[in-house]
Specification:
Order of helices and strands: HH
Radius of gyration: 17 Å
Distance between the termini: 36 Å
Number of strands: 0
Helix content: over 70%
Largest sheet: none
Number of helices: 2
Oligomer: single chain
Mean pLDDT: 83
Number of domains: 1
Structural class: mainly alpha
Low-confidence stretches: none
Shape: elongated
Length: 50
């Protein structure tokens, strides 16, 4: 049986991952010009690291 401490740790990790994913998608979902958005190399670099 999983104790409450382990369950809370798991939920904390899941919440942290979801928070980071939400922040990244929110940033790229804005309708504002981004630096180097017309550069193919910058687009590929961002795609590889995120």
């Amino acid at each position: 049986m999983v104790n409450q401490h382990t369950r809370h740790n798991l939920l904390t990790v899941i919440s942290t991952i979801m928070l980071l994913l939400t922040a990244i998608t929110s940033f790229f979902g804005m309708n504002v010009p981004l630096p180097y958005q017309d550069s193919l190399i910058a687009t590929m670099t961002i795609s590889l690291f995120f």
